[in-house]
């Protein structure tokens, strides 16, 4: 009888990660996220280290804040007036995982902590990302 190998993060992570920079305009990041159907984007420094993550939840918070401060109108102008940068809205307290992390542990983190975007880090550098679609796909592959 052979022992079943655990599925690891590196087996299902996305290696080619679209990232954002701290001083990048949030409007540009929103465009990329919508175009590429990304629900979370890591924010990296010049050495590819993780500074934060921007998620669709963060973006909805921005919209809520803007709508409270402004009447309905020209959203382009509101974003220009605000000059909102990634560093202004990103989640700074980021839970990262390693390529060798068992996917079932990541699923537990996702379910019990409500986290759906995990930057994958090795030796302090971003090497991939595991998003909610990857997690759902892996999770339901365990279900009979």
Can you offer a commentary on this structure?
- It is a single chain.
- The chain has one domain: CBS-domain, CATH 3.10.580.
- A hairpin with a 2-residue loop joins strand 4 (117-122) and strand 5.
- By secondary structure, the chain is α+β, with helices and mostly antiparallel strands.
- The protein has seven helices and five strands; from the N terminus they run H-E-H-E-E-H-H-H-H-E-E-H.
- The strands form two sheets. A three-stranded mixed beta sheet has the order 1-2-3. It has a two-stranded antiparallel ribbon with strand order 4-5.
- Helix content is 43%, strand content 18%.
- Helix 6 packs across helix 7 (132-141).
- The longest helix has 14 residues, at 56-69.
